[in-house]
TrEMBL record:
The organism of origin for this protein: Jatropha curcas
Protein's name according to its UniProt entry: Pentacotripeptide-repeat region of PRORP domain-containing protein
Taxonomic superkingdom: Eukaryota
Annotated keywords: Repeat
PPR repeats: 118-152, 153-187, 188-222
Signal peptide span: none
Matches recorded under Pfam families: PPR_2, PPR_3
Family the entry assigns: Belongs to the PPR family. P subfamily.
Tagged with keyword Repeat: yes
Length: 251
């Protein structure tokens, strides 16, 4: 076998090896993933976005978030349109990089294109917006979710209630809490604890007691943070501890 035949054989073997990794989604390092991405881009006139998404997902698992964003730009330069999967991957990367503004803008683009994003991705984005005190954007996104016919889950509602409560927007937090019930999404222990903590932190003991009674009546327990906030109120502490013991004995 001549030197050029050997080179051709080696390249062919390498390509076959990389294609096998793409199909099995089993990249062990970034070099293999990047080589496979480049191979797909340059060997197909219309590269399949699903194959490229597999590589992007593998890079996310390796925590190369900035690299994923860079590769997505390459896809656009090659005229490859993102699908719902690649959009979700990008939103996840922006969240990990604390670039929630970019994630928020991308979500708006998704809605305009008629896509319905994953509720988990939407929830993590809302969480990021609340964490950065971008409550106007968080509320807008939450309203968009409902308007587009997506059903927020109890985690989405609880994050909104928590964010609004911490900001002192207790009336708005209460409205979201009651909307959750009205939409058939039943509050859980976390939901009750976050709204109770909001009222306690802002010295509205009357509303806090109302929700404590409601929470206890439904058999939910106070978490450690709620107990710390009521430590100076013996009656509330006794009520919450008795409920906690009752829950433990039932389990």
């Amino acid at each position: 076998m001549g030197i050029f035949d050997s080179l051709s054989y080696s390249t062919s073997t390498s390509s076959t090896h990389l294609r096998g990794k793409i199909k099995s989604d089993s990249f062990q390092n970034i070099d293999d993933a990047l080589a496979s991405f480049d191979l797909i881009l340059r060997s197909n006139r219309s590269p399949p976005v699903m194959e490229l998404n597999k590589i992007l997902s593998a890079l996310v698992r390796m925590k190369h978030y900035a690299t994923v964003i860079s590769l997505s730009k390459q896809m656009e330069m090659f005229g490859i349109s993102h699908d719902i999967c690649s959009f979700n991957i990008l939103i996840n990367c922006f969240r990990h990089l604390d670039c929630v503004d970019f994630g928020y803008s991308l979500m708006g683009k998704l809605f305009k294109l008629g896509f319905k994003p994953n509720i988990i991705r939407l929830t993590t984005l809302i969480h990021g917006l609340c964490r950065e005190d971008k409550f106007v954007e968080a509320v807008d996104l939450f309203d968009d979710i409902v308007e587009k016919g997506l059903q927020p889950d109890v985690c989405t509602y609880s994050i909104m209630v928590n964010g609004l409560s911490k900001e002192g927007l207790l009336h708005e937090a209460l409205m979201v809490f009651r909307k959750m019930e009205g939409n058939g999404c039943l509050p859980d222990s976390c939901s009750y604890n976050v709204i109770i903590q909001g009222y306690l932190r802002h010295k509205d003991v009357s509303m806090a007691k109302q929700f404590i009674d409601e929470m206890v009546g439904k058999g939910f327990s106070a978490d450690a943070t709620t107990l710390e906030l009521v430590v100076n109120d013996d009656l509330l502490v006794k009520k919450l501890l008795s409920c906690s013991k009752s829950s433990q004995s039932e389990s």
